[in-house]
């Protein structure tokens, strides 16, 4: 399942497809199982970010997992970050109201992670990443 391994980093390239979130979950679980104590949180956060790419960017996605500490997951897509997207990822943005039907993914990632960020990809597109201080049990 791994497309590339570099030291303590694993890379998986996925197509612009809704099934990519499922494949990303399996990849993270297999990669980090036994290496970190909260694999479920990392799997959930990765799934949210990859599903956002599938639903909104509709481009291929690359998931990079770096064994920590801290564990770091980067999700690369081919669409440049807009000002609106930068606002959505802002640390002070509140959770959506209970009646909202979407918009919980990035706030969820912010609340579960130790750090989260957005970088421009020099090759085009963007990288949304999170870190989680997590050690083996």
Could you characterize what this model shows?
The protein has 137 residues and is of the alpha+beta class. It is 34% helix and 26% strand. Strands 1-2-3-4-6-5 form a 6-stranded antiparallel beta sheet, covered by helices on one side.
Low-confidence stretches: none
Written as H for each helix and E for each strand, in order along the chain, the element string is EEHHEEHHEE
Give the tally of β-strands. Answer: 6
Distance between the termini: 25 Å
Largest sheet: 6 strands, antiparallel
User: How many helices in DSSP terms?
Assistant: 4
Shape: globular
Quickly give the structural class: alpha+beta
Helix content: 25-40%
* Mean pLDDT across residues: 83
Order of strands across the main sheet: 1-2-3-4-6-5
Radius of gyration: 14 Å
